[in-house]
TrEMBL record:
<keyword id="KW-0472">Membrane</keyword>
<dbReference type="InterPro" id="IPR001173">
    <property type="entry name" value="Glyco_trans_2-like"/>
</dbReference>
<feature type="transmembrane region" description="Helical">
    <location>
        <begin position="314"/>
        <end position="339"/>
    </location>
</feature>
<feature type="domain" description="GtrA/DPMS transmembrane">
    <location>
        <begin position="249"/>
        <end position="367"/>
    </location>
</feature>
<dbReference type="GO" id="GO:0009247">
    <property type="term" value="P:glycolipid biosynthetic process"/>
</dbReference>
<dbReference type="InterPro" id="IPR007267">
    <property type="entry name" value="GtrA_DPMS_TM"/>
</dbReference>
<dbReference type="GO" id="GO:0004582">
    <property type="term" value="F:dolichyl-phosphate beta-D-mannosyltransferase activity"/>
</dbReference>
<keyword id="KW-1133">Transmembrane helix</keyword>
<comment type="similarity">
    <text>Belongs to the glycosyltransferase 2 family.</text>
</comment>
<keyword id="KW-0812">Transmembrane</keyword>
<feature type="transmembrane region" description="Helical">
    <location>
        <begin position="272"/>
        <end position="293"/>
    </location>
</feature>
<keyword id="KW-0808">Transferase</keyword>
<dbReference type="InterPro" id="IPR029044">
    <property type="entry name" value="Nucleotide-diphossugar_trans"/>
</dbReference>
<keyword id="KW-0328">Glycosyltransferase</keyword>
<dbReference type="InterPro" id="IPR039528">
    <property type="entry name" value="DPM1-like"/>
</dbReference>
<dbReference type="Pfam" id="PF04138">
    <property type="entry name" value="GtrA_DPMS_TM"/>
</dbReference>
<dbReference type="Pfam" id="PF00535">
    <property type="entry name" value="Glycos_transf_2"/>
</dbReference>
């Protein structure tokens, strides 16, 4: 099995040799894999490439790939293609060149792979891992919040570190994601690759790492651009699919129901009914509409047919009653703790909770997976 360790560099001449020495040393005793090291340099003005090409002449498993500067994502992509096509990698690894990632931990990544993981990430946010103690509080918060946004935003909380660049994974997952990856030039590439791999069924393993500050040079990350890209990625991948998917349809159906409810109320009041009765008629009509449209559209992949519809419709009425109780319960609670004037706020919260309740009940009970 060929492992190619990709090391992206931009102005890293102070650390690249120490890193390569150290990586070669910790992997020397390994028998299982043929390991090579590929430095992907973007024509660093500090002469990193000259150093590396000299080093590569002395060590036959060290390679240099030079190119023009187009961002970290592009450099990694170029490196991965080269690793697969020219160096016949079966396994791809990745590590930062500035010694923020401890090369001594590298064998642990391979151990995890041996134990059945397909994609191993170095994790700062699990026991045994850490971010630097000397970071200012704002930087710690920034790091933790940013990572959590991705972690929970994409909906895979079981993976704790999304933004790091210390990883080892099977080539297959690169191949599966390849087409889409060229869209991501910058640091967001790392998130996209991990995300696609999980969606493609990769079994993710985590190795705790202590991330240390670089001692030389400076970070090439452009925070504003990075934040924008990460936001864009998470929002388009997750929230968009949520809105365009089941949840969006649920919202449309609910809005139609609300309109029916309101019109019916006015019509029945106009016909001379008591407003309470009119409102109950309206609510039941909305329930009928919600049931029919959710059944034939929102959840059509789990459509209820035949006589079963009768029992389910009854259940659906109970669910709606539940939402009603949640909503008025919230208003009652709000008025009790915050006074009568606050009822509108609690009404909004109550409606929100009621929606959440309905959506959950529809998904887990009424139209639950068989
Ligand atoms: N080839 C290449 N490497 C890059 C580029 N940007 C960053 N790197 C490398 O990617 C790694 C991580 O970058 P760094 O600036 O340390 O990011 P930070 O640790 O998140 O602050 C380092 O080895 C950098 O030299 C780039 O545009 N091209
Ligand atoms: Mg760094």
């Amino acid at each position: 099995m060929n492992v190619v360790v990709i090391i992206p560099t931009y102005n890293e001449r102070d650390t690249i040799v120490e890193l390569l020495d150290s990586l070669r040393e910790v992997t020397a005793s390994n028998k299982r894999y043929t390991i090579s090291f590929l430095v992907v340099d973007d024509t660093s003005p500090d002469g990193t490439a000259t150093l590396v090409s000299g080093y590569a002449k002395r060590h036959k498993n060290v390679f240099l790939l030079s190119g023009k500067k187009e961002g970290l994502g592009k450099a990694l992509l170029r490196g991965m293609h080269y690793a697969i096509e020219k160096l016949h990698a079966n396994i791809i690894a990745q590590i930062d060149a500035d010694l923020s990632h401890d090369p001594k931990v590298f064998p642990k990544f391979l151990d995890k792979l041996n134990k059945g993981a397909d994609f191993v990430v170095g994790s700062r946010y699990i026991p045994g891992g850490s971010i630097p103690d000397n970071w200012a509080p704002y930087r710690k918060v920034y790091s933790v919040v940013g990572n959590s946004f991705v972690r929970f935003g994409l909906g895979f909380p079981q993976v704790h570190d999304w933004t790091g660049g210390y990883r080892v994974f099977a080539k297959k997952y690169f191949d599966l994601a390849n087409d889409e990856l060229s869209k991501y030039r910058g640091y967001v590439f790392q998130i996209a690759l991990l995300h696609k791999s999980i969606l493609n069924g990769a079994n993710v393993g985590e190795v705790p790492i202590h991330f240390t500050d670089r001692r030389f040079g400076h970070s090439k990350i452009a925070p504003a651009e990075y934040i924008r890209n990460v936001f864009e990625y998470v929002i388009t991948k997750r929230f968009y699919s949520l809105v365009a998917g089941t949840f969006g349809k649920f919202a449309v159906v609910g809005t139609v129901g609300f309109i029916i409810n309101t019109i019916a109320l006015e019509v029945f009041v106009g016909l001379g009914f008591h407003p309470a009765t009119a409102s109950a008629f309206g609510a039941e009509l909305a329930i009928v509409s919600n049931f029919l449209f959710n059944n034939s559209w929102t959840f059509r992949h789990r459509k209820i047919t035949g006589l079963k519809r009768i029992g389910k419709f009854f259940q659906f009425n109970m669910t709606s009653l539940g939402a009603l109780l949640i909503q008025s319960g919230t208003v009652a609670f709000g008025v009790w703790v915050a006074g009568r004037d606050s009822y509108r706020y609690y009404y909004v919260i109550g409606v929100g909770l009621g929606l959440l309740w309905n959506y959950t009940m529809y998904k887990k009970v009424i139209w639950k997976k068989q």
